[in-house]
Design goal:
By secondary structure, the protein is α/β, with parallel strands linked by helices. It has helices spanning 3-15, 20-29, 51-54, 56-72, 90-98, 105-108, 118-127, 216-232, 278-287, 298-304, 307-316, 320-334, and strands at residues 18-19, 79-84, 109-114, 134-138, 149-154, 163-168, 171-179, 185-193, 211-214, 234-243, 253-256, 259-261, 271-273, 276-277, 291-297, 343-349. It is globular and about 65 Å long.
Length: 367
Amino acid sequence: MTPLSEHIVAMIRQDGPLPMDSYMNLCLAHPEHGYYMARDPFGRAGDFTTAPEISQIFGELVGIWCVSTWQTMQVPDPFNLIELGPGRGTMMADLLRAVKVMPGFLESVEVHLVETSPALRRLQTATLAQSGAQVHWHEDIESIPDRPTLVIGNEFFDALPVRQLQYTEIGWYERVIGLNRSGELQIELAGDRVPDAALPDWMQDAEVGEVAELSPARADYATRLARRVAGDGGALLVIDYGHVRPGPGETLQAVSRHNPIDTLGQPGECDLTAHVDFAALEDCFVDAGLSTFGPITQSQFLAGMGLAERLEMLTKRSGARERMKIVDAARRLVAGTEMGHLFKVLVATHAELAKPAPFAHMKEMER
């Protein structure tokens, strides 16, 4: 047993089974034993690799998006650039390096990183020490000053907790974490049926045994972000893996050393994530009064932001071996068998803002 699993077992014995979202939140964010609290999980030596760690091009193209959107906002000075869950700070470092060529951007921007992990804050501080930007850290978005704002969330929403429900012959029941006869963690069903009126329409027609995932935590966060942008002006850029249309299916997964493991096997010692329901996010943004664009695939977004041109520029001044590394890293970002199709991009803007890049040049429908 891990230190956190011992803690969870004691909680269940005292208070009864835990809903899945409570379990997930403890695993990732427990102050002492949470997965993100005291470790660097990124890269080959960690448990997973994100796009900014694969290629500098990713952060550079997000930087180009920021500059383009800032210009459509009539170059406010000052303005907030918020990153949610910034990892090691790699994407922000690449982004800020790329925007140095744009007069006025660095002079106007205040960078705000929303990060709860002390260990990752230390890494971000070191990574951004030479960025030339004002950088501030926050536990939550509520402490960030009110002003025109750009928000970036890359692989942020997938780590927010999800509820799981399972359909039976007599309706939907919540999946919870309880204990078996040996005192080990197990998934079971709660005793009370979930009322149909409390469920979205797409869950009304299901087959016995199907599992559905909902995330009140994501909806709450998305709504608060959207209200912020609707009030202060600006835009949101969400990049994550997930599905465009809601539907049943269990996507919660645990990862350790780049391999999937049992979700109950190593609480606090492995990453837990679930696919993002982009339709649910979009509904939150629209309900707050924002205009939405997408979702499109990560491959489409990067191509629209100039991936080919940036790749040509980098490979021109590289040797043969380095050129192969650069091209292979870019391929991982856009290939359908890698990150290119599973990862989606959704943009939401203040209602009065012009259509953002790259959608201004694409045949995308605005809601």
